[in-house]
Amino acid sequence: MDKVQDAIDILKMYNQEHIIKLLEKLDEEQKTELIEQINHIDFHQIMELYDNTKKEIEIKENKIEPLPYLDKAKLTPEQKEEFEKLGEEVIRNNQYAVVTMAGGQGTRLGHSGPKGTFKLDVYGKGKYLFEILAENLKEANKKYDVSIPWYIMTSKENNKQTVEFLEKNNYFGYNKDDVIIFTQSELPLVDTEGKLLINKDMKIKEASDGNGGTYSSLRASGSLADMKERGIKWVFIGGVDNALLKMADTTLLGMAVKKGVQIASKSVVKANPHEKVGVFCKMNGHPKVIEYAELPEKMAEEIDDNGELKYGESHIMCNLYTIDAIEKVSKETLMYHSAFKKNSYIDEEGKEVIPEEPNSYKFESFIFDAFEFFDDIAILRGKREDDFAPVKNKDGVDSPRTAKELYEKFWNRNRD
Q: Distance between CA atoms of 109 and 251, rounded to whole angstroms?
């Protein structure tokens, strides 16, 4: 009984009376499940995040400065050789692991399933995004005579489908003992009044807490402990939707080792000053990625002495960390960003409401917000045509059509 009263007290304290009314209508099993969920939610945090949606984001221009980078195409043969040798050593010593963030659905692509199960129409017969990544890793394994542990982060929403898909396809020939699947954490959705939404299953509606949740989810799932047990020293984290992602780039890895940094990242040059991508910079003396919406227009257009954009290095979700860096960040609380979105919900009468306009806030942290916990980051500038073929939109830019074109051109150029 105490649990029920505790839940009701919490709901009253945070003005969630609509959920108390709902509790009265539920059968015992539904009631028990909802009470359990209420007692696990950090209402104070959610209300704080809701209050933040009313505040303006302020960026003080004078504290932002460009970040240095190395251009892969302009490295001397000696530099390239040194980096590759250092990177190769880490991989050959079984000290390297990769993480794929695959918690999203393919909704924007018109695909009903996890994004990694989307088939890209390459070379006639097509390849799944998971298959492309598996091939990329298998090639590295063969080259360096190892089996790189592959950690795949799913969401509660797509975990079952992802596991079934990978098992049905025999993990695309990847060693099953080296594939570790874990799920990312979630946060409740709130409407414009700060009320938590209720889902069709009569529970509080939650959504994944953004790719910044990767660090804490690695810890909570036991995956970080598993990495340490395997003797991993470096961890690469990338998305599932880049058909040209190099998950074992020895140049990037070797550069990070040589520079003695804890974090490194690969960038590509912005296509134009107003391309909608986050860009690297230094803010208050720490590395940072500023989202395109938060970068003042004047700064977005600034040119350096070489005629290049001062803030032109795009973050392409191609990040590298020491295991100590992941350990450190997994204990930190990252800042949350709010996204105003359309979400259906169950009203107090138990009827489903499907809104036509955005009606609620989703809170998410971004993976690059963790960069601020470090003094330095090493950035390697790659090339769009070699490193970045995202599959995000159904048509137009960053669509299956553009990714197919980039993927086929790359492999036609790089066939042995």
A: 33
Domains of the chain from N-terminus onward: 1-40 (no CATH), 58-413 (3.90.550.10)
208 and 103 Cβ atoms separated by less than 8 Å: yes
Beta pairing partners, 379: 265
How many Å apart are CA 279 and CA 235, to the nearest integer? Answer: 22
Using an 8 Å Cβ cutoff, are 352 and 201 in contact? Answer: no
Tens digits of pLDDT across the chain (416 residues):
578 898 999 999 999 999 998 888 888 999 999 999 999 899 999 999 999 888 776 655 557 889 999 999 999 999 999 999 999 999 999 999 999 999 998 888 989 999 999 999 998 889 999 999 999 999 999 999 999 999 999 999 899 999 999 999 999 999 999 999 999 989 999 999 999 999 999 999 998 889 999 999 999 999 999 999 999 999 999 999 999 999 999 999 999 999 999 999 999 999 899 888 899 999 889 999 998 877 888 889 999 888 889 999 999 999 999 999 999 999 998 989 898 999 999 987 788 999 999 999 999 999 999 999 999 999 999 999 999 999 999 999 899 999 999 999 999 998 75
pTM score: 0.91
> Which residues are CB-contacts of 60 (< 8 A; sequence separation ≥ 6)?
none
DSSP state of 349: T
Output the 3-class SS for 155-215: CCCCHHHHHHHHHHCHHHHCCHHHEEEEECCEEECEECCCCECECCCCCECEEECCHHHHH
